[in-house]
Design goal:
This protein is mainly β and 265 residues long. It has a single domain (3-114, 126-263), classed as Porin. It has 3 helices and 15 strands. It has a 13-stranded mixed beta sheet with strand order 7-8-12-13-14-11-3-6-5-4-2-1-9. The longest helix is centred in the N-terminal third of the chain and has 14 residues, at 39-52. The termini are far apart. 38% of the residues are buried.
Length: 265
Amino acid sequence: MSAYYQLLSRQVDAQGTVTARYQSTIHAQGAWNPNEQHMAPATGVICAELEQFSPRETMRIGRISLDIYGLIALGEIEITTQSIRAGKTIELIESTMKGQGKTLVVARTWRMMISDSSAIAGLEDLTVETPENMPIFDGIHQWRGGFTQTIEARSNVQRHGKGLVWLRTQTEMVEGQKTSDFVRLVCMSDMANGVVPRQPRPFEWAFPNLDLQIHLFRMPQGEWLGIEAVQQYGMDGIGLSSSVLHDVHGPFGRSEQILTLRQLS
């Protein structure tokens, strides 16, 4: 089965810091530039490292905040993961992705103590139609790059700037490793910025995101990610993509992405 990355090596030092080297494949190729990685698999491989980093049954990931320093070049990358604020009830973890001598992505993750809060549980985000009876959405493949070609999408066609799209991929994150539901679904959440673009094609403005903020009030399950997205553009060159994230069991979190709006020549 195809994969987005090949693991080259992993080392753990005396302080517990983990450094892993990966080689990206063509399936990780981005949409804006043929020489870049898409942020979605980059998010996924970071999440794969987070999942393996000193796991504890009493805690889970509640928030991941990823900042994109620039173009994420295809090729060899290195991810260093360390705890920067240890604790029994909350822990802050930092993952830094580097390539070609540059910092590419820095992710900070809050891992939080879990407890039984069923007595007060309640949601305001509503459940949405699941993908089984939705038509195939080929609009996703209007985006260039190897990554989007690995994605299956279903949707009832929506207007520009707002709508619901379901996504899934059968491609493994790392060659030879089974991809967890958490890694597979959180990876695809970066697609929220491209599933319901506010502009018709051909685009007159580019709108790459500089970050990805993910908040999880429960862990996702299954193979389908539902993105209930809204994309908004301000008047001074900055935009925002906001989404409610769903699996087939209902909503499980939200994401935000800040956009830099740049007129295409």
